């Protein structure tokens, strides 16, 4: 997993681990030119030869291992040629070095792979000029040291070694790069966030259950209303037709007429909400009227017999 063993590669907070070889050089955190984050290292060279900044804030260095160092440089036009050199701890011995092919007036990345010799417990990385007396300035940002022969994407560090999207084995907080900003979350914050998320999820579940119950009640109410309307319509449709003559005579008709309006009225009341009722007295009166009309319309017995007798002179035909 990619990691950055340079504890202060981004210089976002301080100059820890950064130094100069010559007392006349000046180094400072600067916002004038930045590769990422808010600051870079600005070095103003002295007239002394071989001057320049160096960094020794590396951790986890082992002998006999291959490492790759990388960083971003911004070299304005007019600067001298620069060199990269890697030493054992405290400039005890030079391990390797290379001339930097500069691109002027733009940020570019320099990468260099080397192997630590026996007895190496720490490293010092120098970026220096040659023997000239130039007093110009240049900028450095995103210093990274990682095991292996390939330089990976820069991992922001600001006082501790960084591991991409993971916590270090020593329990240091996770440090990831996001637009040059260190993103770290302590275990306490993680626990707090977890509790907050759990509370939010529980609240959502409770709300969902409440909504489900409400919807269920609405659906049940709608079903009950539909059933009531269905029953009302069924009763309305089932009312006996008022004009029917049965073999049993008008008594059966009268009973149907007496109960029919009441049933019909109750059905209409449930469906339309209007009270349509027929008083019992009015019903009885109408029944008596119907009986009277029926007697008036009923033919005399003698006439009925005469009409029904064969050969009676055809009186029934006139």
Defining traits:
318 residues, 31% helix, rod-shaped
Structural class: alpha+beta
Mean pLDDT: 73
Tell me what portion of residues adopts beta-strand conformation: 15-25%
Main beta sheet strand tally, sense and closure: 5 strands, antiparallel
Fraction of residues in helices? Answer: 25-40%
Round the Cα radius of gyration to an integer and report it. Answer: 52 Å
What is the string of SSEs from the N terminus onward? EEEEEEEEEEEEEEHHHH
Straight-line distance between termini? 122 Å
- How many distinct helices? 4
Structure description:
Strands 2-5-10-7-8 form a five-stranded antiparallel β-sheet, with no helix packed on it. The protein has helices at 187-237, 250-272, 280-297, 301-308, and strands at residues 3-4, 18-20, 26-30, 40-44, 53-55, 66-74, 82-88, 94-100, 107-115, 123-129, 137-147, 162-163, 176-178, 181-183. By secondary structure, the chain is an alpha+beta fold. Helix 1 packs antiparallel against helix 2 and helix 2 runs antiparallel to helix 3 (280-297). Strand 13 (176-178) and strand 14 (181-183) form a beta hairpin.
């Amino acid at each position: 997993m990619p990691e950055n063993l340079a504890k202060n590669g981004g210089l976002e907070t301080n100059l820890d681990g950064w130094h100069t070889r010559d007392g006349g050089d000046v180094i400072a955190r600067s916002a004038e030119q930045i590769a990422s984050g808010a600051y870079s290292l600005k070095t103003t060279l002295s007239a002394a030869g071989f001057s320049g900044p160096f960094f020794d804030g590396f951790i986890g260095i082992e002998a006999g291992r291959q490492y790759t160092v990388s960083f971003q440089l911004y070299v304005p036009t007019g600067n001298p040629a620069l060199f990269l050199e890697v030493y054992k701890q405290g400039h005890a011995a030079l391990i390797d070095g290379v001339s930097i092919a500069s691109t002027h007036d733009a940020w570019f990345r320099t990468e260099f792979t080397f192997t630590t010799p026996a007895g190496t417990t720490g490293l010092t990385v120098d970026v220096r000029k040659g023997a000239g007396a130039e007093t110009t300035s240049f900028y450095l940002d995103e210093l990274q040291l990682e095991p292996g022969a390939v330089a990976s994407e820069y991992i922001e560090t600001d006082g501790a070694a960084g591991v991409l999207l993971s916590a270090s084995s020593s329990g240091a907080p996770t440090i990831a790069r996001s637009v040059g900003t260190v993103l770290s979350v302590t275990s306490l914050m993680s626990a707090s966030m977890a509790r907050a998320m759990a509370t939010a999820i529980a609240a959502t579940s409770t709300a969902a259950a409440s909504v489900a119950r409400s919807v269920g009640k609405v659906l049940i109410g709608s079903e009950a209303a539909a059933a009531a309307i269905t029953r009302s319509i069924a009763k309305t449709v089932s009312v006996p037709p008022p004009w029917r003559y049965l073999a049993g005579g008008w008594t059966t008709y009268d009973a149907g007429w007496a109960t029919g309006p009441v049933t019909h009225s109750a059905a209409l009341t449930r469906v339309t909400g209007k009270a349509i009722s027929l008083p019992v007295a009015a019903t009885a009166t109408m029944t008596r009227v119907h009986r009277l009309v029926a007697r008036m319309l009923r033919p005399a017995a003698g006439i009925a017999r005469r009409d029904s007798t064969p050969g009676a002179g055809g009186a029934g035909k006139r």
